Amino acid sequence: xxxxxxxxxxxxxxxxxxxxxxxxxxTLVRSIFMFFITLFAFAGLYVLALADFVAIxxxxxYVGGILVLILFAFMLSxxxxxxxxxxxKNQFISANKxxxxxxxxxFFIVLLNMVLKVDxxxxxxxxNAIKTNNVITPTSITTDNxxxxxxxxxxxxxxxxxxxxxxxxxxxxxxxRKEQTL
Amino acid sequence: xxxxxxFLVVSAALFCIGLFMVxxxxxxxxxxIGIELMLxxxxxxxxxxxxxxxLNNGGQLFALFAIVLAAATTAVALAIILNVYRRYKTxxxxxxxxxxxx
Lengths: 182, 102
Known about the structure:
The complex is a heterodimer of chains A (182) and B (102).
Chain A: H1 3-24, H2 28-48, H3 52-76, H4 79-91, H5 93-118, H6 124-131, H7 143-151, H8 155-175
Chain B: H1 4-24, H2 28-50, H3 58-88
Helix pairs in contact in B: 1-2, 2-3
């Protein structure tokens, strides 16, 4: 077991443990701050999958943007409702949670079965990629290639997503505006 | 090197944790966090397979697109949650059950 694999297992453990903590934590703020750690560990996993640019984007957009947005929304919705929600949640803790756990466990078994059956490391296109040396190695520089591909091969999805992002942000700003009589 | 199966197993586990959160929580913000977790698990798969596409960078680029889409989704969803809170004074999805205005 070399160092990379050990790092992968450490990162996977941090991700899974913090995600489980997010899922079972009673207080909302604690789970939001624990979600920070989950997202950072996700970025670490992306680095280990040799996608450094995606990892940086993950940190910038998710940790810097989305989580701050979630915290804002939490602070703008009142504290007393959240407390009432948590009190009420403790009452019927069993029935709802057991059903959800059952569903998640069954889904996990199905996914695991599928993953072990498909044997992803020996898919035809992956062996083909290894044969034609189309594999990202730890020393290769990918960011240049991503920029070139973004402006040539994937130009249409790039422009479409930029328009969609603008529409979504305008819509969000419009929705969260205070209603005023015209 | 790390095998693809490891990545797939980790992301399957994270997806199921997200699914558990979506089904069991009675707070819209926590459900949103669960959805984000599921999205991130899917993005992890894209990135892991993207390692075998050096020339076209298909996996990594679509991971980037998915991240941007997740940001847009979150912005709109939080705006909707704020509006729901303003109307109903609660963000429990079980309690928001009227379409008409009060």
